[in-house]
Each structure stands twice: as structure tokens, then as C-alpha cells.
Amino acid sequence: MAGKVHPVDAVLPWPRLATLGLQHVLVMYAGAVAVPLIIGRALKLPPEDVAFLISADLFACGIATLIQSLGFPGMGIRLPVMMGVTFASVGPMLAMAGDPSIGLLGIYGSVIAAGVFGILIAPFVSRLLPLFPPVVTGTIILVIGISLMRVGINWAGGGLPMLTRVVDGVPGSFPNPGYGQLQGLGIALFVLLVILALTKWGEGFLANVAVLLGIVAGCALASVLGIMHFENVAAAAWFAPVLPFHFGVPSFHLVPILTMCLVMVVVMIESLGMFLALADMTGRKLDRAALTAGLRADGVGTLIGGIFNTFPYTSFSQNVGLVGVTGVRSRFVTAAGGVIMLALGLLPKMAAIVEAVPQVVLGGAGLVMFGMVAATGARILTNVDFRTNRFNLYVVAVSVGFGMIPLVSPHFFKNLPHELQPLLESGILLAALVAVGLNAFFNGLRSGAEVERAAASAAAAVEHG
């Protein structure tokens, strides 16, 4: 029917938008604030400056999410996307933080330059679409989901098994005493069971917000058990503006800029995988122009990050899984999430409430959502011809193996040149490069038109299936 609104473009009633948007925010919040916490502590900033970094990050998250979800002329993928600071930038920024000649202002200069670089190269990266037939796309999305499971498992365990502490200027690791405690594991399991029960027996909107209700139930249980605390909420201010260049005028250094531009390439290739995953989940056809607009929004978000005292932005894969779990495809839901992120950035007391959610509570939800991303990749691979084309088996097998290297053995590439680390630390990027290379070697390359026709057929199958 000509006048039918695609589910991606459906505008839900505002109470539903607000509730579903909050669900997206809770899913991504821990990851969103992790990077400013890490960098702030590495720079030995005072607590009030670290708090400002977090507020600035949330504020810029909101702006970048609105650009990506709502879309503006020439930018924005117009899919249900939440934006957050990429972890691919942490290693290079820690190295910059350790150099007194670069420092925080040098980091911001490299972030701004990388944002401009991302805007410029977006049309060229989008031309890679013919390199991503279903065997490649499904493999990448499968690796994204498997890689994210480490995050969900560590959340359920109560953080990271090993913590880093600086003693006499030397960083060292020590076991996390709270990791794997029975109480925390029990809460994570409780959240998981609530989500599964609501998914099975809930109907309509109740099923759509199963993850949110599971988190709320987990918070209630954590409060009763005394592991959810609200001291920071009482101490937080009600309002704090986020102004550009809060710490001063950025400085620009060639090597940090080149390093961050390399990170931007990694981010954009990973974003291609996220966009293709969302396209499959939502039944929305993506052509080269749409991919260019989405990738350009990554660059714009990173530029905004540098201006508003934060870091490079990318499409958050955590939230892709939530789209699969809820089945809610409207991009206005993530736009509502962007508005909430903006409010959290300007209202520290609200941000403190969200920050009080224990990681074990998020862990129970993460196991469902991140597994859903992996399941989406597996579903795409079911449409790949493995029976008559045995080469496709090799594409998947070897690519998944390479994608697991950073996950299983983080120090596997430690003896290779340091400049290559941003590339080698991303299992998603490794899987993408290997999958693309092997597919080209075994199967050759299809034209862009053939890929777009295949994407349209897949979208139609999702829409009517």
C-alpha cells in the first residue's frame, strides 16, 4: 500500500517513546561513561573534572544520536541507532594522556581532526558495499554478537575480573574481589528470568519493555540487598551547563591526529556492520547514499565530541541487540533516547540515578541482547549457500577464528608494531577484513547493483516474513 508507513518511520505515542527510549539509555549507559572515566583517571583529573567529562559525554551522545536517528540533509542513517564513545579510541588516547606534551587538549585536537577526516572519507567507505554479501555480513554480525558477550558476562560477574591500579606512577593489575560473587550472579540470573518470563507471557507494550522492566526489578532487588546506593544522587547538582572548549583551546599534533584518523577508519568499518545488522532487523533497504549519510554522521558526532570536551563517537552495538529483542523498529525511539541523554548531560542528578544501577543488573539483560546480535548473524548465514559452495564454509570459519583472537588472547599481537594496535585490537575489524578478503578470493566480487538487489530482496523477506 502506497501510503503505508515503514515501521522504522513510525512515530509512537510519547509515553511509549519515552519508556522505550529510557530502555535504550539504560542498556548503553555503563559503556557510555566508561571511556571518560578511564581517560579522566589516566590524566589524574580532579573528581569535579571527571564528573564534567561524563556530563559532556552524555550531552554529546544525545546530539550525535539525534543526528543519526532523525537524519539531516546528507547525514544520518535514519535507523534506530544510539551513539556512544568508541572503545577503539581508548588505547591511543591513553598513550596521548601519558605524554605531557599532548595531554587532554592534544587529545581533543586529534578527535576534532579525526571527525573532519571521517566526514571527508564517508563517501569512499560507503563504496565498500559490494564487498559485503550475506556471507560476509552474517559473519561480521555473528562476531559482533560474540564479542559483545564478553561485556555482558563481565557485567553479570560484577565488572572486570582484573582491575587496574596505579602505584607510585606504575600501573598494575589486581583481582576484583567483587567479581563472581554469588549474590551478584543471583541478581543477574533474576533479571534474565524476569526478561524471559515477560517475553513469553507478556503482550504488546509489556513485552516490548521486558528489558527495562527486568532492569527495574533487578534494581529493586539490589536495593533490598543493599548493593545499590544513592549517595552520589544526593550529592549531585541539579543543573550544569556543557560549554564548548571547557578545558581550553585544543592543540594539534601530527602523530596523534594520524593515529586517531586510523581509529576513525576502524570505527567506520565497524559501523558498516552495525548498519547492515539493523537493516536486516528492521527490513529497511540501505543503498550507498544511506550508508554515506550514516558514516558521515559518525564523523560529525566525533567532531562534536572534540568540540564539547569528549571523544570519538560510533554507533553502539549494545543497542542493536535491544532492537532484536523488542522488535520495536522505530528510529524515533532512539531519538527519544537521545533526548534523554541530553537531559542526563545537563542534569547531573538524573545521571547519578542511572549511574547507580549495578553492573550485575545490566549483566542479566546483556546476555539476552548481545546473544540476539549473534543470533541475527546466524540467521543471515542460514540464507547463504553452503551446500553447493563449500568455499563459504571457509569464509565463515576462518573469519570467526580471526575475530576471536583479541577476545581470547588480548596480547596475541603484542610483538607487532605499536602503530598497528588500533587495527589488531578489534576482533570485529579483523573478522571483517578476513571475511571480505576470503570472499573476494573464493567467490569474486559482485557489482554494487547486484548487492543492492540482494539487499532489497532480503529486506522484502523480512518485511513480509
The Cα radius of gyration reads 21 Å
Question: What string gives the helices and strands in order?
Answer: HHEHHHEEHHHHHHEHHHHHHHH
Taken together, the total number of domains comes to 1
Main structural class: mainly alpha
Portion of residues in beta strands equals under 5%
Q: How would a textbook summarize the main sheet?
A: 2 strands, antiparallel
Task: Output the number of helix runs.
Answer: 19
Low-pLDDT segments: 447-452, 454-465
| Spatial separation of the terminal alpha carbons | 17 Å
- Helix content, binned percent: 55-70%
Question: Using DSSP, what is the number of strands?
Answer: 4
What spatial order of strands do you see in the largest sheet?
A: 1-4
Global mean pLDDT: 82
Shape: globular
SSE diagram, text form:
Layout: H1 14-42, H2 47-70, E1 83-85, H3 90-97, H4 103-126, H5 134-157, E2 162-167, E3 170-175, H6 182-201, H7 205-208, H8 210-225, H9 231-235, H10 254-282, H11 288-307, E4 313-315, H12 317-326, H13 331-346, H14 348-355, H15 359-381, H16 391-408, H17 421-424, H18 427-443, H19 448-464
Antiparallel strand pairs: 1-4, 2-3
Helix pairs in contact: 1-2, 1-3, 1-13, 2-11, 2-13, 4-10, 4-11, 5-10, 5-15, 5-16, 5-18, 6-8, 6-15, 8-15, 10-11, 10-12, 10-19, 12-15, 13-14, 16-18
